[in-house]
């Protein structure tokens, strides 16, 4: 390879979001000991600025789309979609964290630097087109989020969350990596397009090699997206981690992991789809069922949302089972909608739970509508969207996913998925009942007034949820245009 | 000159990987569990190197470098997390670190 | 040149056997011929060395772990220098700039831990300065 092809200005343009976020993160880290301010909103402002600049960079990169660094990255519509999505999730995480970090008296700069690094890793995952680059992106994202999960280091629950997230996360990564190594051995390459070419080519390795490698990678990725039966870590981690971090973990890394999932299985392993579709089918059904039924039993809201996030991973896997461009587009749309509604719901929990996150029980929502009607209204939007009521993003997300599944003749999976959504309605409605039909309880009496940043953290995802629910066409068109990953 | 067959290395790395997995699943000490993960990563490295040797490519060696660096970063963060857990609970038994359940 | 696999590794086997025989032999001889004296002085870990004090299982300061972990991190990063050195002459300026970027990133991390007080060996207790 000639030297000049290593880093042209085009490569740099396509790499802009990662570049901006990394520089900003490093800057925050270096500035911290220089400025010496434990709690300051300066770092939060800076990281929002960096994320906005990153979104700008991603759009600029999209205008000059194409492969970067000799095919290591592939900046196409799909990549840009997820890059922008994870950065939006980043912004929606920073907003509630102003109040949160102040309340818990925690350091601000490190939190935001870690967040930026994690988002940068997710951006790499979104656009990576080579397995080792995917691995590096995955680890940049994960290592930063392990620390974020245990950010309150004197809190026992946060410690435990971080430990479990770390152990299971690295276990999953090791699995994924072993699959990568086997693919490398079987095909002699780790570029996704090249792997596909080898599998389809005349000298294709024995299907059993590719199959085993794909299965091992599948297990690793299923851990990362918390799909059953690899979901065991999720409830403990989401419950124990600081609430804004739980919000982030359930939306950002998950969306990025699904981006990787879709890209690998819809390009490199698309020729052996007959082998993996049944596996995904089972995983999808298990995730939906386990998630929804376990969520029914929970009284801790964070834990309930964790199980609900497992169920939602199941819905996205239904879209992957469909194994079509329509399915990919539906998964993209769903993940966008899910990010808004889930981050919003967690922001409300963070607001309500008070110092030390005392109030996490479902009972603490009693009478929220009387004391803070705006907060209650926003949470209502998020919950209705999580149920999948029309006019919300969640409805169209589910609608497109099941439509794609039907088009691929997955009648049983569709029926079981719809039954699952009906079950899910129960536990979301329980919170609504608490908010609107009870007198204020202790938690609501203690609640602090909304700060501007927290208000934004609720209103922006609500707008996003409603926008996707009322004008789904715009995002769906984009997703549909970029869902063809085989170019 | 005769060489050690490639399949031997692959078998060795597969055995190491499985040892790592079973250590992860059955050991109760957090540090041992963590060491099992490192063992898995090293098994992966051995696989990469073996294939690179077999394919006469240099890529595989570089992948091993990346894996090593990432594993070191992971180890640092992981040990720090384990330290805070130990500080707050004075135990390294994984069954004792289980306070969240309904 | 030996051509079969066993022939190639035969010397290694012989050496391993010899080593084991020698070690085993020496131990047996000293067990058979040596005088068996058991008293406090004889049973000390370092018979003629410094007398050990305290309990071996006492806790170390958390500083040791911190420095140890940071060492792993910065130590391993040097691994990238090896492939870099090999191709440095071919890639010329490009390689230099790339390594510069890499080193700047490493140094900013170093700057951070330094300023945060993670390397202050003398500062007692509170590891990271809380300000």
Word description of this protein:
- The complex is a heterotrimer of chains A (487), B (102) and C (131).
- Chain A has 487 residues and is mainly alpha-helical.
- Chain A is 77% helix and 1% strand.
- Chain A has a two-stranded antiparallel sheet.
- By secondary structure, chain B is mainly α.
- Chain B has a domain at 29-97: Helix Hairpins, CATH 1.10.287.3510.
- Chain C folds into two domains: 5-43; 62-129, NADH:ubiquinone/plastoquinone oxidoreductase, chain 3 (Methane Monooxygenase Hydroxylase, Chain G, domain 1, Up-down Bundle), CATH 1.20.58.1610.
- The N and C termini of chain C lie far apart (69 Å).
- Mean pLDDT of chain C is 81; it is low at 125-131.
- Classes of the chains: A mainly alpha (487), B mainly alpha (102), C mainly alpha (131).
List the helices and strands and how they pair.
The complex is a heterotrimer of chains A (487), B (102) and C (131).
Chain A (H helix, E strand, L loop, with lengths): L8 H6 L1 H20 L6 H22 L2 E3 L4 E3 L1 H27 L4 H20 L3 H19 L6 H32 L4 H9 L6 H18 L8 H8 L2 H26 L4 H24 L4 H22 L2 H29 L14 H4 L1 H15 L5 H15 L3 H26 L5 H5 L5 H19 L1 H11 L5
Antiparallel strand pairs in A: 1-2
Chain B lengths: L5 H21 L3 H26 L3 H31 L13
Chain C lengths: L4 H29 L28 H16 L3 H11 L1 H24 L15
Features:
heterotrimer, A: 487 residues, mainly alpha, two-stranded antiparallel sheet, 77% helix, globular, C: 131 residues, Methane Monooxygenase Hydroxylase, Chain G, domain 1, 2 domains, 0% strand, flat
For the record, the count of structural domains of chain A works out to: 1
> How many distinct beta strands of chain B?
0
Oligomeric state, counting identical vs distinct chains: heterotrimer
Report the β-strand fraction of chain B as a percent range: under 5%
**Within the CATH hierarchy, at the fold level, what is the topology of one domain in chain B?**
Helix Hairpins
Element order, helices and strands of chain B? HHH
* Silhouette of chain A: globular
Going by helix content, strand content and strand pairing, the class of chain A is mainly alpha
CATH class of one domain in chain B: Mainly Alpha
Low-pLDDT parts of chain B are none
Proportion of residues in helical segments of chain A? over 70%
Intertermini distance of chain A: 22 Å
Largest sheet of chain B: none
Rounded to an integer, what's the Rg of chain B over CA atoms?
A: 17 Å
Rg of chain A to the nearest angstrom?
A: 21 Å
Mean pLDDT of chain B: 89
- Class based on secondary structure composition and strand pairing of chain B: mainly alpha
* CATH architecture annotation of one domain in chain B: Orthogonal Bundle
Strand order of the largest sheet of chain A: 1-2
The ordered string of helix (H) and strand (E) elements of chain A is HHHEEHHHHHHHHHHHHHHHHHH
Q: What share of the residues of chain A does DSSP label as strand, in percent?
A: under 5%
